[in-house]
Amino acid sequence: MTTTQTRPTRIGEATIAEFAAGLRGTVVRPGDADYDHERSIWNGAHDRRPTLIARCAGVADVIRTVDLARSEGLPLSVRGGGHSIPGFSTVDDGIVLDLSLMKGVQVDPARRRVAAQAGCTWKDLDAETQQFGLAVTGGLVSSTGIAGFTTGGGIGWLVRKHGLASDNLVGADVVTADGQFIHASADENPDLFWGLRGGGGNFGVVTSFEYQLHEVGPTVLSGLVFYPAEEAEQVLRGYRAACAAAPDELTTLVNMTTAPPVPFLPEWVHGKPVIAVGGCWSGDPDAGEAATASFRSLGTVIADVFAAHPYAGWQQALDPLYPRGVHNYFRSAFLRAADDASVRVLLDSFAASPNAMTEIHLHHLGGAVGRVPAEATAFALRDQEFIVNVIARTPTAEGFTDVVEWARGVTSALGPDVAAYVNFTGEANTTLVRASYPADTYRRLVQLKNEYDPTNLFRLNQNIAPTV
Known about the structure:
By secondary structure, the protein is an alpha+beta fold. Helices cover 27% and strands 23% of the residues.
């Protein structure tokens, strides 16, 4: 990324100097040698130029940055891992509050708890918790930040056994829009705690998360089995039937994709459409082979790479396929059931895939997710058996518009009122956000927004707009 111009700042030089002097972290501005590096984010589709980037070293820095954005009336972007698909991790002519320096992790193995600062990625957290054979549901790509993932819900390989990441949240430290530092839990500010578990970044900057941990690993049976694209319908229907009998310890997904040039796949299939079933068995190791057998015999097997893997290694297995800088657009749709009409949409959409980087995932939910009452958290879509995630990507801007339209078409074909996962809405879209929460849940979120952020300072997110 090359700097071509410097935009005029809307903050006085004296104000910036005073702000920088009081910061333990660093301030990066246009013209600084590292400005282009620091303004870039994982999703290459967004190339924006903030007025300043505050690289916060602790809570005091976060409070100062929130106060500066509020007093100067500037847009505020909060960046954790920086994976925001709609580009909320950066902003033009505003302030980026960058949490990436805040990576402290403290595990309490006796209580099976972990406290992690908001700049952590799942790779950071897994490295610490797996030292004690413990884990919490994390992202499928380990460079994903814990913050946005958790506040939006958090769907990963442990979701059926141990629930969403947000279901395992037991406490959070938050800086609110008025610069106050508060704790949210079942006992302190329980209304805010409810909203942080699925309501996204609407109510403040979470600086630290405390999770309940579970015994996982250090080895899990996990992997992928690949089938020919010509058998996609047979595989999808068989997958649906296998899911109906799957134990909670097994989380699986179907990936309708293009075979990558990896050594465990025969060369003749490289670059050709395939349908893969991935899974992670987190139960008794001796029972894993039997539990996964039905998913590994759905058609003509091209390759079966299910094996015992270190849990932390499996969490990082997909990382090379999702490098920094690629143009990304993700959409999603919840399904109460993978009925015949939905299967047909997925098959037709797969056949119309615009390039080799596009994918359609059908991810099995249920299990522990459905056992949490819908009203217990802001993530209220507890009766959905599956989620479809549509992955649209291009190496550069060329052709990106086409893959975005394809992705929108997939979810639209699944139903005009289908609910989306707020972490995978692709863009800022208030209609999608409203459709992603039941009416009572959305009303409660608006009330919470009115209380904690009535001026909508935190609006670079899947926004819940205040009414006051």
